[in-house]
Amino acid sequence: MHSLISIALLFLGASLAASLFLPDSLELRQIMQRYQDELEPNGTKADVPLRSRRAIRWSDREEILQLHNKLRGAVYPTASNMEYMVWDDELEKSATYWAEQCQWEHGPKDLLMSIGQNLAVHWGRYRSPAYHVQAWYDEEKDYTYPYPHECNPWCPERCSGPMCTHYTQLVWATTNRVGCAVHTCSRINVWGEVWENAIYLVCNYSPKGNWIGEAPYQTGRPCSQCPPSYGGGCRNNLCYKGDPERHESPDMNEVEKPQEPVQPWTTPTKPQPKPSFPQKPANANPSSTKTTRTTYLAQIIKCETKMRDKCKGAACNRYNCPANCLNKKGKVWGTLYYDVQSSICRAAIHYGIIDNNGGLVDVTRKDNFPFFVKATKNGVESFSKYKPGNAFTVSRVEEQTIDCYTTVAEICPFKASTSHCPRVFCPANCINEPSYWAPVVGSNIYGDGSSICRAAIHSGVIKASGGYVDLLALDKRKSYAGTLKNGIQSESKTNTEGGSFRVFAVRE
């Protein structure tokens, strides 16, 4: 059983319309900024964007936006001035703030003077946000469009059903920006009845519509009365001037469609670590729930293993040194910066990263170092070399316990050759977290705004019970392909910002 209720705000009093209409006003921007700030911890602006807690996943965002434009371009009678709608991050943030309040009413009051707002709530079986958008539009069957000759000077309002204002806001011609949020409310009072675990959708619009006495759009040949700022552009019956930061592509239409995973991406300067065991076959079933541990970031080496033997690129990743390397024969040249002919493990002991019990070492290469100075440290004697050569540094591998929402963008964003991430421990049951708060973008290689733990489950590195994960931060990718694997549907995404990452199993 499920319930669906939608309400829309309608201002009474046409005489107030001009004074309340504040598109792109200073007041609107100030209000938006205040709610943006309130979304961040302690009322202060965070250094790293909280992308892991974004209140709507990318696929739902694209589906909502595309459905809005599809419906706006299909109105009858046809519209001559209907503008193409784009997504607005500030409207999304204000919608997020209000959705998290779990109040079944329009708000906040001081923002409603500048924006339009549609609300929907349901509980029971799953309903996508687009389901509610379509329900808003379906109020059209009860709405009678007021033709110009009927507007003298004010247009009559003719709605034969309970409400038509969701529909009129959705198709208001001059409303060209939308931002929405979805929130799961543990308890919400819906007209006197308390619903538990209800899904609450808030969509904010700007410039606002639903002005008393006005028609939602002008009728006529599509795009024949577009504002001059559109330069005569028309797309699918909508006034369109293009947006260099948003390009529609087939990927944006694949909202929940499973895709074949892409092969791991590499760059010439950042090779992927060599697996200790065979890779998973390319024809493996991407929807399989069986977890596999086939690749490891931390490579097991010997005490005598030289950096020259293991590192061929700028990022040298992670190594696991055995015990009792202190008295082995592997030579070390340099101090702090070590020649690539040095033993990795004995250089790590020399610098104090590990002791004679062995352990994990992160290594970073530096090309063309001028000279190497000898020193005796921690029981290891190093040698001098007074000529230039390729070098490396060693660093300690930190361990960090994270939650289901933590992202690589927060703890170790990609920084060329110095990107070393901690070994992280994921808690149990991250598979059950909503994708709105813990999204997963991509397959094999993931967008750095993805939930680390859910990406690790998706890739088969850990099970739903949690565990340790190694991470490798990578540079940005042009696109990601979503797949259904191990009970998690990842998202497709194009034209992304930020970096990417891979997840690796940890040997038990």
UniProtKB/TrEMBL annotation:
The keyword Signal applies. It comes from the Eukaryota. It is found in: Secreted. Residues 246-259 have a biased composition (Basic and acidic residues). Residues 1-17 form the signal peptide. InterPro entries: Allrgn_V5/Tpx1_CS, CAP_dom, CAP_sf, CRISP-LCCL_domain, CRISP-related, LCCL, LCCL_sf. Residues 282-291 have a biased composition (Polar residues). Keywords: Disulfide bond, Repeat, Secreted, Signal. Residues 246-291 are annotated as: Disordered. Its main location: secreted. One of its GO terms (cellular component) is extracellular region. Residues 297-392, 398-490 form the LCCL domain. PANTHER family: CYSTEINE RICH SECRETORY PROTEIN LCCL DOMAIN CONTAINING 2, LCCL DOMAIN PROTEIN (AFU_ORTHOLOGUE AFUA_5G08630). This is Cysteine-rich secretory protein LCCL domain containing 2. It comes from Cyprinus carpio (Common carp).
